[in-house]
Structure formats: C-alpha cells, structure tokens
Amino acid sequence: MTATWVDAHCHLQLGEGGDAQVHRARGAGVEWMVCVGTDLDSSRHALDFATRHRNVLGTVGLHPHDASKLAAQWSLLEPLAAAPECVAVGEAGFDLYYEHSPRDEQEVAFRFQIRLAKRLGKPLVIHSRDAWDETFRVLADEGVPEPTVFHCFTGGPAEARRALDLGAYLSFSGIVSFKSAGDLRAAARITPADRLLVETDAPYLAPEPHRGKPNEPALVGVVGAALAAARGDGVSDVAAVTRENAARVFGR
Fold first, then answer.
1. Angle between helices 132-142 and 103-120 (to 10 degrees)
2. Any residues with CB less than 8 A from the CB of 73 and at least 6 apart, and which?
3. What share of the chain has pLDDT > 90, as a percent?
4. What is the DSSP secondary structure assignment for residue 16, as one 8-state letter?
5. Which listed residue, 141, 192, 220, 238, has the most CB atoms within 10 A of its CB?
6. pTM for this one?
C-alpha cells in the first residue's frame, strides 16, 4: 500500500507552475499541503492557492529576509492573517546566515508575529537559521503560541530538546537526506513521534537524489522516507503520524 503524506511547508507561489505542482502532488500521494507566505504579496498568493485548491492550506507571514517591510505592511498583514483562509502565522523568526534585514528589525517582526498568532489563536511557523539563542530568547520573552512549528529544523539534539521543551513541533525537510546532516538525523531520532512533521520547503532543498533541482510537494514522500530511515521507523508509520500531527497543528 502506497503511503500518503502531508507537506507541512511549501511555497507554491515561489516556484513555477504552482497549480500543476498541486496536481502532481495529488498523483504522488500527497493528501494536502501548507502553502506559506513570506511577505504581503506571497501571503496573498498563498491564500489564493488555498481558495482554489481544496488540498492546499495557506499561511500569512513575514520572513526574516523581508522583516524590513513590516512598517509598510503590518496594517495589511494583520487583517489578512485574521481571514478564515489563513491557518497559521509565519514563517517568522531570525535568519542571521544571510541577514538580508537587520537583526533588530528581524526581532521586531518576529515579536509582532508571535503576538499576532497568540491574539488570533493560530499556530506560529518559525524560521530560525544561525540564530538559536536569539530565537529562544524572544520566545522566552513573548511566550510560545500553541501550537508552534520549527519549520525546516536544522539543529542537532541540543536544539531539538530546547524546542521540544517548549512544546513545539519539529518539521524536517530534504536536508535530512543530505550526507552532511548527521546531527540533524540525530535530532530526528530523539523527536517524539507526536511532535514530528515533514515538509519540502519547495521550491528549495530538494532531497537526495533530486538535490540541485527545483523541489515540489510531490517529493515530500522522498523526504519522509529519508526521515523514516534516520529514525529507524517504517515509512508508512512516519507518513501516518506526520499526517495526524499536521492535521492537529493546522486544524485540518
């Protein structure tokens, strides 16, 4: 029996042929997917995909790369996030690897979105790259929305334990299949099954053996198989539990 999957994080609006990707995903056993916003325009497109496709959910958020846009966009992002079509706030957080927006502006945008998620009673989707201490410091200050997802989790066991102690879910991308990702696979092994999600982050981070090519939700099963191998679990078991967890997080 072929496993069926949920892609907990993708960007249909940032790749080519998003509608065709949705149809290919269905043919590849993807039950549904979450299309994530990164600024006002991409958030609007995420909700548009969700409106047009029954198997797509949409989020509204401001990526740390775009945190400098907050002053210009907050008055429009907030009502968009309150729309019934929006199932979560984010992705939000810190990216200190590129630091396309100054870190102080990233922090302001992150705090805004944490408060927005709590006010709306919606999940928070976190992006944290090279910024664990900053991320956990702000979460300690603001409090952690219930539920919270660390998308494209890239830490090792120590970071995983810190996130899990906050009650967060960890979402694993195609990086779990990369040969260099031993610490990430170790983190996957200690993550309780009921806190586990799987994602593509399409069009980025295609899993092996597709690495270097555009990613899409149809490949989430490849990511899931790599995650299952890292944990020593059956593929169908990982597919089932990550579907259940995604439905609990996003209210599907």
1. 40
2. 39, 40, 62
3. 97
4. S
5. 220
6. 0.97
